[in-house]
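The data layer described in this paper is built around a simple, fixed record for each protein. We quote a single record here, exactly as it is kept in our systems:
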Amino acid sequence: MSEFSVQLFSPENLVDPYPAYKQLRDEAPIYFMPEMNLHVVTRYDLLREAIKRTEDFSSRYDRFLNGARELMFSTLSDEQKQEALDIESRMVEIPPTMLTLDEPEHTQYRSLVSKLFTVSQVKKSEDAVRAVIMKNIETMKTKTSGDFMEDFAFPVPLEIISDRLGIPVEDRDFFYEAATAAAAGLKMAPITPEEIVKRGKLALDLQKFLIGLVEARRKDPQEDMITILATSKLEEADRELTHGEILSILNQFLVAGHETTTSTFGWGMLALCDNPELQAQIRGDEKRIKTFVEETLRVEAPVQGLPRLVARDCELGGYELKAGDMLMLRYGAANRDERQFENPDQVDVDREKAGMQMAFGSGVHHCIGAPLARQELNIGFHELMEHFKDFERDIPKGRPVADPSFILRGLPHLHVTYKHR
């Protein structure tokens, strides 16, 4: 147990966790936080090892998520709590599927949607992805300044994942609002009681909307993910997926499919503004753009960490752990480990093995949507550099600050100025 104290999840460290990460990597690479009953893992080699040892470190961390929910509910008044519970009672129960299951159950669900994210399938979607990107670039061309998050980083991934899921165009406005609220819930950031109730109502409406689409696809299949989930069977059980199982999988794609890519667009643009020489270095250079994307994912991991449940008494790096303990694997810390990456705080567009970053996780839970995210990011930054130059931060608007979030790391706003090419 450590003799010093690091308030890793204080508001200031949630905004800028990197000095605390470095201290932990150097002095206590596995650090017990008694106030949260968590053992925090920050060193690259230890994260890699923990992810491989699935029999020791389980992804069944529902208990952790339930604890966070109870903490959130504790801020509500009696009246608000009753309203939230009423909403919850009308919702379909969400069982564990991919993110919070181990093998072999995890693969049963993952294999149903993996066919949508093969390299060949993603390659087929390139024209559609480029069309969405170009539509937003045309909007940016009507001016020379704006909030990059609002003009490009938010709408591009959201429209692309909506197309992939099969959300009707006429329902997009509602879907965008509800999907954004669902992703915000995973940030585990402090919010007002009123916002908790509002998100609950949106979540219930989203469930009803998606279940309606599932039933429509069972009668009239389309080429989209909702159709695949609506018409596929779990081989082991020889049955269709329940509404709860389908909603569980779709909820995961709402976050993985847009929130993380949005974050990376934002942090990448901020890096280009802070280091103007990078703009010229990557422009028109496919290899460097790919490395730039990997470096942005590494330096500002959009998912900063995820839990694991210790399944049996064991040790990690000589640190003793008991069955039932909770680990918190901090990808954001591992990605800046100088033992693995030279000059880890710098974006280096010539870095060898930049793809060793862990923003998409690793092992059996490696992000299934990573090929699509990389496609969006690579094409997006290529086209941005082709059509614009001299991106700078809009100084009077102030330096952007990260959302204080326990899990995700995003920029709510990034005001930029630029010139047309």
